[in-house]
Amino acid sequence: MEKKIVLVSLFAALIAVLGLAPKVMLASGVPITAQSMGIMLCGTVLGAKRGTLAVLLFITLTALGLPLLSGGRGGLGIFASPSVGFIVGFPLAAYVAGLITTKLKMVKIFYSSLLGAIIGGIFVLYIPGIIGMSIILGKSISEATVIALIYLPGDLIKAFLCATLTQTLFKLRPADVLSRS
Amino acid sequence: MIKPKLVLNEISYAAFGKVILEDLTLTLDEKSIGIIGRNGSGKSTLAKILCGLIDPSKGKLEVFINGKNQSHPNLKIGIVFQNPDHQIIFGTVEEEIGFGLKNLGYSKSEVKKKTALTLQKFDKTNWINLSTSTLSQGQRQLLCIMSVFAMDPEIIILDEVFSGLDLPTTKALDTYIKNLPQMIIHITHSLSSLEKCNRVIWLDYGKVLLDGSPKSVLNEYSKHMLRNVNL
Amino acid sequence: MLALRFPQHTWLEKIPASMKLVLLATATSGIFFVETLSIMVLLLVTTIAFQFLLGWQIFKFSLGLLKPLLPFIAIIVIWHLYSGDLGYGALIISRLLLIVTLANIVTCSTKTSEISEIIEKIISPMRLVNINTKAISLSVLIFIRFTPIVLERQKILQLAYKCRSGKRPSWQIIVPLILSIMDDADHVAQALKSRSTLRE
After folding, report:
1. Please, what sign has the CA dihedral across residues C148, C149, C154, C157?
2. Residue A61 located in a structural domain
3. What is the Cα–Cα distance from B29 to B46, expressed in whole angstroms?
4. Which chains have 3+ CB pairs within 8 A of A?
5. Least buried of A80, A93, B217, C171, by fewest C-beta within 10 Å?
6. Chain B residue closest in CA terms to C181
7. Given CB atoms, is C194 within the 8 Å cutoff of chain B?
8. Chain B CB contacts of C149 below 8 Å
9. Per-residue pLDDT tens over the stretch A38-63
């Protein structure tokens, strides 16, 4: 039990660290961070329940004022920014990603986590994300969707990376990949 | 005062198809016991089994404290690990020492008192408000020892607590360890710290190779180690 | 690990956290009903002036906190230049800046302990629904303690990679980073177990 608590806390720390790591510039000039990949990984590696707990831990402490959201953002201001929808969607994304990875036991972990990362980390995440952006940026849903599409290529790469990472971790530390143990 | 006693009966441990400990049958009741052996000989695994953190795959361990057979795991056996970074959770010395005490059920005021008492015993009263991140490696290791000591264990297991420390720090820490009143089981590569032990056990590939007085065991060990330098 | 705080103490810290949070929630909701650009700009300018009055250090600090919004502001400017509706664009931008600034003022003038006390009060009834509050507070502690450590390790891994390849790594260090986390989890869990009794 202690091990699970510690893994949850450490993965929450991982989300923070992936957000603080330097950004990568996509061709379109939009900086992307690995932070949302951290969210996907929480789901695909820790499973639905623990993954969500890790994400909730991260969000709560960031909301408390720790500058851990990518770009060094923190505090209540994060809920006032255009990313608010995504932030609210993070726990849902991790949950769905974890659920899919766990439920699709019969499929190789690469594919189940890829599916989980795409459905959870992109589809499920983008819905509240787009709603949030439309409210804050004063755009219609379809307009906000257009803006969100800027992130799509980066997020697809992250989903693929997430699946690769999950598969590697499962090979090296099968007992620690809680989504499949 | 009845001495604490650990009785191992054919203790074996295997993980991932590898045998780590094999058929250990020992009775440990000396005041200070040293455990030596190459890396990978199973010393840390033995330490964790002794304090109840992991269960042996086979065999039985009985812990007698004050003559009574104890259930496992129990907080009467303290353990200090090799990396203080894995053990220190809090930001201040006071909170760190208080953690174990709170878990034992002491009230807030009792925790405060016992923390102050512990620091006093180690002559570190001025540490109470220090931030744990400002302590040096050796100081952090001492903090770990103090945090375990504060819980009044009957037995303290030290698992390679000198790792990564320079010689003077090792000597300083060793002085504290030698003054601990509890039964001490000391796992270390620092052979000189074991010279004054009551008993030294040499573990090799999960089995007891030699077991006896520090003089005889340590002598054999150093001779053997210098002859078999082989990766 | 430091939470976002103003570089200097202000009288705002004396206001109880709960009151600040309620005021913030009310103000934020109210602001969404403002549709006139001039009013919004007035509110924004007032807030900025307020921060300026708190002190030059604080003013600079708060401006710095708004930097991450620049990409979004750029998107809005470009969008509205294209659509020709600059007035509405200006409204959105001022509103964004205003709300984020207000939220930041509350965050930076409130002690973490105050906010966590409020959170604890919200969480404590959960004990009745069998949620392990002790485990929650332990997770918070370990998170706070280990984030800087994991960050350090990431930097070291980056350095090690760079030393041997001459290039800056991106995704290559994530596996060793996570492996080290999993190994750490083992050790920390055992150290925890040796000092606590989580089975309640």
Report:
1. positive
2. yes
3. 16
4. C
5. C171
6. B86
7. yes
8. 85
9. 999 999 999 999 999 999 999 988 98
Report pLDDT digits (tens) over B191-204.
Answer: 999 999 999 999 99
Query: C194 to chain B nearest CA, in Å?
Result: 7
Q: What percentage of chain C reaches a pLDDT higher than 90?
A: 9
Question: Which residue in the set B48, B88, B100 is minimally distant from C190, CB to CB?
Answer: B48
Q: Is C36 within 8 Å of chain B by CB?
A: no
Is A81's CB within 8 Å of C1's CB?
Answer: no
Segment C42-60 mean pLDDT? 90
0.90 exceeded by pTM: no
CA distance A133 to B109: 51
Residue A141 lies in a domain: yes
Return d(Cα A18, Cα C165) in angstroms, integer.
21
> Which chain C residues in 96-125 lie under 8 Å from chain A, judged by CB atoms?
96, 99-104, 106-108, 110, 112, 115-116, 119
Predicted pLDDT at A24: 62
- Is the pLDDT reported for residue A29 higher than 70? no
CA distance C131 to A53: 12
**Looking at the domain assignment, is residue A155 inside a domain?**
yes
What backbone phi and psi angles, to 5 degrees, belong to B63?
Answer: -115, 120
pLDDT at B73: 60
Domain holding A9, by residue range, is 2-176
C196 lies within 8 A of chain B by CB: yes
b/e burial code for range C118-131 (CB count within 10 A of at least 16 → b): bbeeeeeeeeeeee
Domain segments of chain C: what residues? 11-119, 132-194
* Confidence at residue B182, expressed as pLDDT on a 0 to 100 scale: 92
Q: Is residue A181 part of a domain?
A: no
Please report the pLDDT score of residue C200 as a whole number. Answer: 34
Burial class (CB in 10 A: 0-12, 13-18, 19+), B34: buried
The two tokens of residue B213 are 């007085």
Domain count, chain A: 1
- For the domain that residue A53 is a member of, what is the CATH number? 1.10.1760.20
Q: Which residue of A has its CA nearest to C114?
A: A64
What strands, in cross-sheet order, belong to the sheet with B58-65? B18-28, B5-15, B58-65, B68-70
Chain C stretch 131-170, residues whose beta carbon is closer than 8 A to a beta carbon of chain A: 135, 138-140, 142-144, 146-147, 149-151, 154, 170
**Residue C47, SS3?**
helix
Highest mean pLDDT among B29-33, B102-106, B225-229 belongs to: B29-33
CA-based nearest distance B118→chain C, Å? 16
Subunit contact A10:C142, Cβ cutoff 8 A? yes
C27 interaction partners in chain A (CB closer than 8 Å) = none
pLDDT, tens digit, for every residue of A124-172? 999 999 999 999 888 889 988 988 888 898 899 999 999 999 999 999 9
CA-nearest residue of chain B to C183?
A: B86
